[in-house]
Amino acid sequence: MDSWSLPLNSLGDVTLRKLSAFLDNGTKKGWRKLAEVIGTDRRFKCSEKELETCSLEVLEPNGSPGRYFIQLMTDRGCSVNHLISCLHKMGHTEALKCVMPVGE
């Protein structure tokens, strides 16, 4: 099986934490922008309530809006390949470096 077609949780906890940190700290390239880009595919479009729930994660002791959003996408069957495609569209090179193996 092609590793890019694997679900997001196949990336591993360390990679997902790094990716979440990039998405939490970005304004123009953060999790909200990713939600906008990834949401062009109806399967992954989030409701306003879901986006609000992501935002409120910042109030939790170890909360991460980016990680919560990634979990939503994982639950909907988003693949690593689709995530990479969306990060490319956003121009989020830092996040791409943590998701893609060296040399890709």
TrEMBL record:
The lineage of its organism: Eukaryota, Metazoa, Chordata, Craniata, Vertebrata. This is Death domain-containing protein. InterPro entries: DEATH-like_dom_sf, MALT1_Death. It comes from the Eukaryota. CDD domains: Death_MALT1.
